[in-house]
Amino acid sequence: MVTLLKNRKDASMNLPKAILFDLDDTIISFTSAKELAWEKCCEVFVTTEAVTFNSVTLLHKILEKRKWYWSDPARHKAGRENMKIAIRQIVQYAFEDLDYYDIEKSDQLADNHSALQDEFLCLFDGAYEALQILSDLNIRMAIIANGKSQIQRVKLDRFNLNGFFEFILIETEVGFRKPDIRIYELALEQLSLSSEDVWMVGDNLEWDIEAPQKVGIYSIWNNFRKEGLPINPSIIPNKIINSIADLAKDIRAQSQLGI
Question: Which residues are CB-contacts of 212 (< 8 A; sequence separation ≥ 6)?
């Protein structure tokens, strides 16, 4: 485990009274499910349709168009309003670059991806046990998640996570989203705690690290990809972990030592 500090006393020497958690790619393995779904969809498509390209070419083109699509702020905002349409458009753009023009087929591939992604969703190894450890230590917990309420709450129900959290703040329910610091201010208000007593854990450097640091929250980056920080990073986490399982074990060890 690597600890990095930014303009703040090392809060890791004291146990938090509460921890705020991101959901996707912190507790739930979202990116892995998404990537595996794309791979499987492309494999199935090229084996069932008469096309001149292979699954690797199709996958690379979809990923290329996905990166392009989400890089534009206007498209990003519009796409988040209807993810089904956004994914369909990405596949259509990829097909056009491959000189394949069949909207019905492209929509079918996109919809298959969405269904498979849901099927492949799972908790990170040790995530449920980690939450149980923290709960047993009487550390209060809450969720702060972007996205649509219905989608996120279905995940929480599916993996039986609700009981761990004192409250859940979701973008479409509160009216603003990370990295808007108001969502962190609201969390502190609901906890009735000062920022010095609260930690935030998440995978997005801008949303889950920089934003809560602005209100004084000790912020822990879940580097689940194990890729490390970019060169000359402008955002420096207070601590870096590879999983919340590691974090929970560390906190339990500190608790046993009476730190």
Answer: 20, 181, 184, 200, 219
